Amino acid sequence: MQLRVDKLGVIIAALAAYGAFLAPFATFRANRIVAGEARSISEALPPVWAAIILLFVIAAAIVAVLKTPSSLRLAIAFSTLAALALGIGAAAGHLTPPENSYARVSPASGFWVLLFALGLLAADALTRLRPSPLVRVLFLCGVLGFIAAVLMSGTWDGLSLLKEYAGRADTFWAEAGKHVMLALGSLAAATIIGIPVGVLCHRVTRLRDGLLGVLNAIQTIPSIALFGILIAPLGWIAIHVPGAAAIGIRGIGAAPAFVALFLYSLLPVVANTVVGLAGVPREANDAARGIGMTDFQRLAGIEFPLAFPVILTGIRIVLVQNIGLATIAALIGGGGFGVFVFQGVGQTAMDLVLLGAVPTVVLAFTAAIVLDALIEMATPNRNQVQSA
Amino acid sequence: MIEIEGITKRYGETTVVRDVSLTIAPRTVTVIVGTSGSGKTTLLRMINRLVEPTSGKIRLDGEDNRSLPGYELRRRIGYAIQGHGLFPHRTVAQNIATVPTLLGWDRARIDAKVAELLTLFQLDPAAFGPRYPHELSGGQQQRVGVARALAAEPKVLLMDEPFGALDPIIRAKAQDDLLAIQKHFETTIVLVTHDMEEAFHLADRIAVMDKGEVVQYATPAEMLVKPATGFVESLIGAGERPFRLLAIEAVASAVEPGTAEGEAISSAASQREALSTLLWSGRKALPVVGPDGVLLGKVSLDGLAQRAAGRS
Ligand SMILES: Nc1ncnc2c1ncn2[C@@H]1O[C@H](COP(=O)(O)OP(=O)(O)O)[C@@H](O)[C@H]1O
Ligand SMILES: [Mg+2]
Question: Where would I find the ABC transporter domain in this sequence (chain B) (predicted)?
Fold first, then answer.
């Protein structure tokens, strides 16, 4: 058998080698704020663990460099990632002196580089395998399930990120709830309002250009500025509209954050509805009218189903965008994972920043994969010709 | 019966259809021909009120077509267009079932109708019913388009360049199939085309449109012998006239007494086919046999030459 080299694999192997042998694996700090000391894999782990991790990484690098079957690449990438995940937990136990609750152990650059290199290997292998949407979602569930199991087992409890969490478990879940509410609630509102508006824009050409222009302009306002702009009118409503304050409408807090996210969400939903409807074949529309469908029947039975994948694409853009943007809501007291990020920045406590950032990234990633799968399932494959 | 009375359609300043009056007899095929932009589509779409006329009146079986809502009117009138207009997200069976479903037929009746139509259009219901339009060839899509238009058994079928997207061989077959189906259901068909060959092949009567007006409304034979205007003459094509004239008549009406040598021709063949056979085989006359194989007489080169000159 002739051995051939995979170009991306060379880069992955180089990254992995750097991450494993040159960069530090974990950082040890005597307490939460002092500067950390770097530890390599052999220093951070008991010898057996260090050997296991290095063996996995070397095996993965070899598989990556050579042209190997995608399923093998995927398997070695996932098992090495799992070894790393368990290894970093072991490092925390190994580095923390007994009975010491001030010492902090966190992943260092080498760990992140390895994570990135192996993630790249896994993503590349997955792309080449072209799994069906359902399989992709199952994969996602598997990975999330693994992370959940590791968290539950207490393997990571020694890591500083989890120590930050331990002190804030209650607020963490409260802010998580607010974050999801902000992102999903504003999306739901934008969908409920945006789709009918999109339909209207599609039917009334003059409305379309004006409205899309306004929504476009809103998108260009930076988020902080938009929060600021909203403070005055919402404050006014809170004072002058009876009952408004009672349901939580105030110049600062969740209300302006919600309204801002809603406004940002409108353009992608409306624009994609318009584009989707415009893409419905003219003949299908003409035939639908010609054989006696009412306007509503045509909209519900022909135009909307045909435009649906495009509308769903708009919803995907909005959801991923909102999960990220909701982080900023903390700045005006809107809550969400941003609370930890900004507190962490204030206290120069990197672990606290991560406590806000990591769940946000996981959430956005999950949303993207799930919606991409939904979009693919909703899009008929018109090129695939069935054999007669 | 479709009675079109003084129909006019204006868009702003431009008159697209000008004062058109036609009476279309039941169970016939009427073909509207004309150059592109002459108003054929607009005239056709005023019959089922996809376009509302500026003035004039259209009656279907004596009833004003404005006496019921447009969508209800359209459910009673078949409509098929170029490029078939099938719904890409619905199966062939669902596409055909569209109007019966709108009309609230029960499931069993719809299924039976879909199977009947697919069989009639030479598509196996079990194989083709569950397919999506993109899984069919162009000719099959077109047949499904017509089947969908006929699903609710309309008395009238409107067709706008239905065969425009098909290649010549499939188109000829589709035209023959359409005539067979028209006989079967006794449908009144109004068909728009810019292809004169198609018009002469299908039409009982042809309406020629020029700049929004109907300049001649006549049977193909009348039109060939006495074109009303220079425009009609140029549309027919001066060089094609004798051949078109022979093409629209069957050998049966050109039979002369007597016999001839060689292979016989069927009395159902067109006179043009007879001429072609005569010229190709170098004979002066052919024996003619009826559908039951009985010898009827002969058809001669001289006789056909007389007919081709419009002197029969
Ligand atoms: N909705 C409309 N608005 C303005 N002009 C139209 C409209 N529909 C058709 N026309 C014009 O009417 C003329 C006739 O169109 P049509 O009936 O489609 O012709 P044909 O089918 O014979 O090609 C064309 O010049 C076309 O541009
Ligand atoms: Mg036309």
Answer: 2-236
The per-residue pLDDT for A381 is: 63
Q: Where are the domains positioned within chain A? A: 7-160, 169-387
**Which residues in chain A have their CB less than 8 angstroms from residue B98's CB?**
291, 293
Distance from C-alpha of A182 to C-alpha of B164, rounded to nearest angstrom:
54
B213 Cα–ligand 2 center, Å:
15
Q: What is the pTM of this model?
A: 0.82
What pLDDT is attached to residue A254?
A: 81
CB nearest A293 (choices: B102, B127, B135): B102
Spell out the domain ranges in chain B.
2-243, 250-308
pLDDT tens readout for residues B62-120: 999 999 999 999 999 999 998 779 999 999 999 999 999 999 999 999 999 999 999 99
- Of all residues in chain B, the one with the smallest CA distance to A296 is B71
Per-residue H/E/C for chain A: CCCCECHHHHHHHHHHHHHHHHCCCEEEECCCCCCCEEECHHHHCCHHHHHHHHHHHHHHHHHHHECCCHHHHHHHHHHHHHHHHHHHHHHHHHHCCCCCCCCEEEECHHHHHHHHHHHHHHHHHHHHHCCCHHHHHHHHHHHHHHHHHHHHHCCCCCEHHHHHHHHCHHHHHHHHHHHHHHHHHHHHHHHHHHHHHHHHHHHCHHHHHHHHHHHHHHHHCCHHHHHHHHHHHHHHHHHHCCCCHHHCCCCCCHHHHHHHHHHHHHHHHHHHHHHHHHCCCHHHHHHHHHCCCCHHHHHHHHHHHHHHHHHHHHHHHHHHHHHHHHHHHHHHCCCCCHHHHHHHHHCCCHHHHHHHHHHHHHHHHHHHHHHHHHHHHHCCCCCCCCCC
Total count of residues recorded for chain B: 312
Report CB contact under 8 Å: B135, A288. Answer: no
- Asked if the model's pLDDT at residue A251 lies above 80, the reply is no
Q: How confident is the model at residue A388 (pLDDT cuts 50, 70, 90)?
A: very low
Q: How confident is the model at residue A171 (pLDDT cuts 50, 70, 90)?
A: very high
Domain B250-308 has CATH 2.40.37.10: no
Domain A169-387 coded CATH 2.30.30.100: no
Residue with more model confidence, A257 or A251: A257
Fold annotation for B2-243: Rossmann fold (3.40.50)
Chain A residues touching B83 at Cβ < 8 A? 283
The answer to whether the Cβ–Cβ distance between A385 and B134 falls below 8 Å is yes
pLDDT of A384: 44
| pLDDT of B18 above 60 | yes
Which chain A residue shows the shortest CA-CA distance from B83?
Answer: A283
Ligand 1 atom closest to the Cα of residue B11 is 4
Ligand 1 pocket by C-beta < 6 Å: which residues?
B 11, 16, 34, 36-42
What was the pLDDT predicted at A2?
Answer: 66
pLDDT average, residue stretch B140-149 = 94
Closest alpha carbon within chain A to B46: A290
Amino acid at B27: R
What is residue B312's predicted lDDT score, i.e. its pLDDT? 59
H/E stretch holding B146 reads: helix B138-150
Q: Is a pLDDT exceeding 90 seen at residue A243?
A: no
